[in-house]
Design brief:
Strand order of the largest sheet of chain B: 1-2
Helix content of chain B: over 70%
Number of domains of chain A: 1
Radius of gyration of chain A: 19 Å
Shape of chain A: globular
Oligomer: heterodimer
Helix content of chain A: over 70%
Distance between the termini of chain B: 28 Å
Order of helices and strands of chain B: HHEEHHHHHHHHH
Order of helices and strands of chain A: HHHHHHHHHHHHHH
Structural class of chain A: mainly alpha
Shape of chain B: globular
Distance between the termini of chain A: 27 Å
Number of strands of chain A: 0
Largest interface: A-B, 33 and 32 residues
Chain lengths: ~260, ~260
């Protein structure tokens, strides 16, 4: 643990240098997060006939722009890293180092955050300009929003590591990842705000992990929930942080025993 | 370029793909379920949008459903017949193994375009026909035979445009090494084709009609099927389709000249 802490600043520096070297790839990857803008355009045409529930034009603008911001900050590509390093055997090199690979992977992903912030900045400006009045002014909710971003990042990181580690047992995690993405798009509020979903779909979103990765921070920033409800949700989210971290570590220990590297 | 030999090559490549797919029958089930899940996911926002309104941007629910049907068909064609072979090209270029393709006594673009098929995507194609049938059932009529023929023709044009754009993306891999991110960007942009193009306004409408012609891919075939597409637009679409194919051919040949084998 202490060794990891000492090595961490260096790992971060390496990660940032890596990000700067592959900046075009990063930009292209970021542009794939365009679904919120398309959905915003669609709703923009739909609200001509009046608002849907609590959502009118300004609310939709705020919702989808914040969704884009949270998604750009929170998502990661650790599934690819892990699946590829297991399949190609390069995991062996990482295992040789006197540092748990989880630390190295987390540093790589964390190093992308400054670049993501640069990318998110214009979206924030657009958000404040176009729908600033829809953002909450309550300092308590803003604090919860900040914490919920950290929580979302952690849950997403651990879950994606767990998905990647599934390649110890199955040939490729990408199929699983695709299932995850599909369910997540609907139940996480990426496509449509959760409160507009039909009742039979919405009922399961309260306790499933998906909304804590995306729509919970978004709704908090818009002040859609009172402080006590948001606090309760924050508790659930951080419980998910603990559970996903424990599950990932258990998977790691079980999976490593099955790992046999060729070449590398 | 002798046609009969190319027909025989196509037969052989198809046979190999089918044999390959038959080996992984568990994958078949997974792929089938995945396909159906994505179809379901794409219907949810549509359902939410039309829950309490009659029409959006002039499109009623069954009409928009028809566009979704065409979108499903197009994506099935893309993932079944176009993208599996062409993503392999990126890897060939990166590793320098494209040499083996270029050495073969057949047209290189033809060879790389028919290298791999995913026969299971036929299921998605079936699902798309069900959606189209459902849409017409809700309109309470059947499409006129002449309209069906026009729609089939425009569907073919859509496929040609899609294929040509994909060839253009792949040609880029001769110049920048990591083009796999570009293919992700391409499919994420294609996702916007599930909506009638009239839903978009301003710059987005221009982009999706003229630059990245999503209108041509799903909206026009759907309109032709309903008999609401005028002859001028249809004619222009045909013209655009074939010029796209010509441009893609020229760019492919030029990009090929840029290929310097990496390994040998």
């Amino acid at each position: 643990m202490l060794r990891a802490l000492r090595a961490y600043p260096t790992l971060l520096r390496v990660g940032i240098a890596d990000m700067i070297a592959y900046r075009t790839e990063f930009l292209i990857w970021a542009l794939t997060t365009n679904m919120p803008l398309v959905m915003l355009a669609v709703w923009n045409a739909a609200v001509d006939d009046g608002p849907v529930g609590r959502f009118g034009r300004p609310q939709f603008i705020a919702y989808y722009l914040i969704t884009m911001i949270v998604r750009l900050l929170v998502s990661n590509w650790v599934v690819w890293e892990i699946t590829m390093s297991i399949r190609h055997g390069t995991l062996a090199t990482r295992l040789m180092r006197p540092l748990h690979p989880l630390w190295a992977w987390s540093a790589e992903q964390l190093a992308a955050v400054p670049m993501r912030l640069v990318l998110v900045a214009p979206v924030v400006v657009a958000l404040v300009h176009a729908a600033g009045s829809e953002l909450t002014r309550d300092p308590a909710l803003l604090a919860i929003f900040a914490l919920s971003l950290v929580g979302a990042w952690l849950v997403q990181f651990f879950l994606m590591v767990a998905l990647g580690l599934a390649s110890f047992w199955i040939e490729s995690s990408f199929g699983l990842f695709e299932v995850w993405m599909g369910v997540n798009a609907v139940l996480g509020g990426y496509l449509v705000p959760l409160e507009l979903l039909p009742e039979w779909l919405r009922s399961s979103t309260g306790w499933l992990p998906f909304r804590f990765l995306l729509s919970f921070p978004v709704e908090t920033a818009m002040g859609l929930h009172p402080v006590d409800v948001a606090l309760g949700d924050l508790g659930i989210q951080w419980a998910y942080v603990a559970v996903s971290a424990a599950a990932t570590l258990a998977l790691w220990r079980a999976g490593l025993r099955r790992f046999a590297a060729f070449g590398g | 370029m002798r046609p009969t030999r190319h027909v025989r090559v196509l037969q052989a490549q198809l046979r190999a793909s089918v044999a390959n797919a038959m080996q992984y029958r568990a994958d078949f089930l997974l792929q089938g379920l995945l396909g159906l899940m994505w179809v379901g996911v794409s219907l949810i926002p549509l359902n939410v949008l039309y829950r309490d309104r009659q029409s959006i941007a002039g499109w009623t629910w069954p009409q928009a459903l028809l566009v979704t049907g065409w979108f499903t068909a197009l994506r099935a064609a893309l993932e079944g017949a176009v993208s599996p072979s062409l993503t392999a090209v990126v890897e060939h270029v990166r590793r320098g193994t494209l040499d083996f393709v270029l050495l073969k006594p057949a047209d290189s673009q033809f060879l790389v375009s028919t290298a791999r098929f995913e026969p299971w995507k036929v299921l998605d194609l079936g699902a798309s026909f069900v959606i189209m049938g459902w849409a017409f059932h809700q309109m309470g009529r059947a499409p006129a035979p002449l309209d069906l023929a026009a729609a089939a023709l425009l569907g073919l044009v859509a496929l040609i445009v899609l294929y040509s754009m994909w060839i253009l993306v792949i040609s880029l891999s001769f110049f920048i090494v990591r083009a796999d991110n570009l293919s992700f960007l391409f499919s994420s942009l294609l996702d916007a084709a599930r909506w009638p193009v009239q839903v978009f306004r301003g710059a987005l409408r221009f982009l999706f009609t003229f630059i990245f012609p999503l209108a041509l891919m799903t909206t026009y075939p759907a309109m032709a099927m309903m008999g609401t597409l005028d002859a001028t637009t249809a004619g222009t679409a045909l013209l655009v389709g074939f010029s796209f194919a010509a441009v893609a051919r020229v760019v492919w040949l030029r990009a090929l000249r840029n290929y310097t084998s990496a390994s040998s």
